[in-house]
Amino acid sequence: MADSRRVDPLAVPPPRYDTVPNVLPDIAMIGTGAGAVRVQRDSPLVITTPLPEQSWFHKHEPLVIGTASVVIVLSLWQLMGVVREQKIELPLGITMPSRLFLPSPSDVIASFGDLIADGELAQDLAVSGQEFFIGYFSAAITGIVLGLLLGWYPRVRYAFDPFVNFLYATPRIVLLPLFIIWFGIGVESKIAVIFLGAFFAILINTTAGVRNLDAHLIRVAHSFGANDLTIFKTIALPGSVPFILTGLRLGIGHALIGVVVGELVAAQHGIGRMMAIAGATFQSSKVFAGLVFIAATGMLLTYILQRLERHFDAWRPQR
After folding, report:
1. Residue 153 pLDDT more than 80?
2. N or C: which end of the chain has fewer CB within 10 A?
């Protein structure tokens, strides 16, 4: 007959660490300075091995390798320009591309200085910046709110899914002629292109964040009498933050594409218009100057959101 006696969990001895016999005197000090501890002779010693301290290179390895690769590429690029200007003959009949095809970094910097001296760059930056921030932040607010609703209420998602899939699959550039007819060639049509470009990345990621919540947490909250509003504020919204930040980061690239594409077609001012005019007049260095500025802006904003993502990554649901 099986033993039906209950076992007291408190009576079960706790697990023990591996120990070694104490060979110290009756009373000894372990450690040095303020961290020293008095140990009796009959007390067992627990042997631990501290992790080796990381060197400065290992702590900053991504930054060091990334910076070194950028410096190497820029140096080789500039070296190509020097070889071309000095007309140095290379073996095997190798020739450097012309300045029209690939200007050197020094040419791009000189063109950037010319743009600043002309005074038009400030106005172009102001117009493009206005279009970007209005379109991007409008897309962020609308995409987050609608994404939370679509993720939390399945019937709302069923009603909006056909329209979301249709517009998401449609290239935004084909809608630009309609936007110009509806809003004109001012900043309004460009804001509409930027809005659509960033909106769907934010919407889809926010919806996915709500749908990937831990179902066990929601059931436990319901069992304790929490209503939908409380669960939404305490579980759904915090659990969706990492996905929302991912959508915001992806939306930056789409929004910057919208800035350039919208200004290439019809615009009075802007970085995209400046690049279009420079390309039409074969000023490749000015095109590269605008390209570098757009890319640097995207890298900076993406880096900021990546830091925020790492900070909230612990909130991401684990499965």
Report:
1. yes
2. N
Domain boundary among 93, 119, 148: 93
Q: pLDDT digits over 249-258, tens only?
A: 999 989 998 8
| 3-state SS string for 211-266 | HCCCHHHHHHHHHCCCCHHHHHHHHHHHHHHHHHHHHHHHHHHHHHHHHHHHHHHC
What is the Cα–Cα distance from 133 to 172, expressed in whole angstroms?
A: 18
- Per-residue pLDDT band for 314 (boundaries 50, 70, 90) equals low
Q: What is the mean pLDDT of residues 279-306?
A: 87
Element at 40 (helix H, strand E)? strand 37-40
The total of structural domains in the chain comes to: 2
User: How many CB atoms sit inside 10 A of residue 63's CB?
Assistant: 9
Helix, strand, coil in percent for the chain, rounding step 5:
70, 5, 25
Same domain (yes/no): 246, 164: yes
Comparing CA positions, the residue from 153, 318, 139 lying closest to residue 242 is 318
